[in-house]
Design brief:
mainly beta; Tachylectin-2, Chain A; five-stranded antiparallel beta sheet; 24 strands; DUF4185; DUF4185 domain-containing protein
């Protein structure tokens, strides 16, 4: 893959009050716009300083994908991208300290968008996860009342990705937020996504895999951000492989396919800062791996984050493009 361009930072997102930000999970809104949900966001380039909010929502023109997403607006009454959810950072909520709320994935089902987030005290410490909905194309969000404890399924239901199949189910892979865990798979009827009791695990019991069992780890490893999406002729699961310091993609016939046997492609490779070459897909301190709607095996677009934790810049979202091997 090669870099299409930077999507956030000075000269790109100043009018939204965004200097430093990351993530950028994507869906297509009911009105056709692209909706990107960003993580911890600050007014100045880097991490820290004024204007801390998360999550933040930006809108993009779908016609701009090939040349790099063009932002057309944001949440809030003004251009300034306001925090999409009503809470205060580093505050006490339900008796625990919450430093930030981090988005994991967003999905559009009919005329409603659903956003899954992790309620955290620091990086990797998830108190609980919850789901918010938008019925106005991502302009405003309200809590659905749906929550799961941070230790749900042994802590493997924190970092999540979900996508709807043609069979009426939403399929969800998830892992912990510690970047040292494997993946589990669940499904839920699309019209019951906010009902925890309707979720079914994909698990191995009595010598066979089946729905309705407690979910079994479907792929071991050290995983970070995840993105499951149906393409025209297959499913694609892209993810940050923290254990191998790279971003990989698995091509699946179905989410229940054997992940160990699926064709695996390394899309981007991690490297030291003095070894970067974005033209050849070598990126320092990379993470995130979010597919842009409309991607195909021959024209794959991916949003990738980068954070120099020593110098505190870059801290940004970038767009890369490429194709899967034939």
């Amino acid at each position: 893959m090669h870099k299409v361009g930077d999507l956030t930072g000075p000269g790109l997102t100043d009018r939204f009050g965004i200097g430093g930000t990351d993530l950028g999970v994507l869906t297509t809104a009911p009105d056709g716009r692209l909706v990107a949900v960003l993580g911890d966001t600050f007014e100045r380039p880097g991490v820290g300083g004024p204007g801390w909010r998360s999550p933040v929502v930006l809108f993009a023109d779908p016609a701009s994908v090939r040349t790099g997403l063009t932002w057309t607006g944001s949440t809030g009454a003004r251009d300034y991208a306001e925090q999409a959810l009503p809470y205060h950072h580093d505050s006490i909520i339900h008796g625990v300290r919450v430093s930030t709320v981090i988005p994991t994935d967003v999905i559009t089902i009919g005329g409603t968008m659903y956003l899954h987030v992790m309620v955290c005290e620091g990086i990797g410490n998830v108190h609980w996860t919850e789901v918010h909905r938008s019925t106005d194309n991502g302009a405003t969000w309200t809590h659905t009342g749906t929550t799961w404890p941070g230790d749900h399924h042994g802590g493997l239901f924190q970092m999540l990705t979900w996508a709807q199949g043609a069979d009426g189910y939403v399929y969800a892979f998830s892992t912990g937020f510690q970047r040292d865990r494997g993946l589990i798979l669940q499904r839920v009827p699309a019209d019951r996504i906010t009902e925890p009791e309707a979720w079914q695990g994909w698990g191995f019991r009595d010598g066979a895999w089946a729905w309705g069992n407690p979910p079994t780890v479907a792929l071991t490893g050290a995983h970070g951000e995840l993105c499951l999406r149906p393409l025209p002729d297959r499913w694609l699961l892209s993810f940050f492989d923290a254990g191998n310091y790279r971003i990989d993609a698995l091509e699946l016939e179905h989410p229940t396919s054997n992940l160990y046997e699926a064709r695996r492609t390394t899309l981007l490779r991690g490297t030291a800062w003095d070894g970067e070459n974005h033209a050849t897909g070598h990126v320092a301190q990379l993470y995130g791996a979010y597919l842009v709607p409309g991607s195909t095996p021959d024209e794959l677009h991916l949003l990738v984050s980068q954070w120099n934790t020593e110098r505190n810049w870059p801290y940004r979202v970038m767009q890369f493009a490429g194709s899967l091997p034939r």
